[in-house]
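Handover notes (outgoing to incoming on-call)

Open items:
1. Heme exporter protein C: sequence verified, structure written out, both below. Nothing else pending on this one.
2. Nothing else urgent.
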Amino acid sequence: MRKPISILPIGFDLFLYLLVAVSIPSAVLFSILYPNVILEQGLSHRIFYFHVPVAWVALYGPILASFFSLIYLVTKKRLWDDLAFSSNQLSFLFALGVLFSGPIWANSAWGVPWDRTDARLQSFFILCLSLVSYFVFRFLILEPKKKAIISSYLSLLCAISSVLTWGAIRWIENPGNHPGSVLGKGGMDSDMKISFWLSVLAYHFLFLILFLIVYRTQKILSYRETLRAERA
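Heme exporter protein C structure tokens:
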């Protein structure tokens, strides 16, 4: 008897889809219409409500994948490798969103789309290269167990890169033009806080539903590989 693709009830999926369908448009409209305009940047600062929450998810993804990878290295169960792969795929997807939105905001705030002296930008770019390396090795290695083991170690390296990216504006004395943590002492006005945290929730809900979809797709592919191996 084949194992089910998901043990979650169908109603839970529908609830998540509804949550995302409501929260994402609400967050976008709220960030456009509600918070006050920052005079130094004009309307372009509103991309902050997309850029930062998406960046948070992009940084969390490799850490989550490293957790799954550690479990795989202990148990050698393919389930955990599939979960790690799914998490890294989404991390890279959200990272592309950061690389797309970041230069737009930077060009408005700094006058240049990419500042080579900025520690956060350079460290995030290295994170993206680390994730690309992860996918390249998974593609090149054909033997499933060897692929999973090497991928697990690469996931750990991606997680280290993620942590270093997070700390780039916290541990370096002069990190560059990049603003400090949004949770720092300066804080935000109440209208910005409401818009920001609504966006954070919305994009984390989006990450969750996409994670379930990607993982189930990967599980189907794993079953297909198993069937082919059995027939061979």
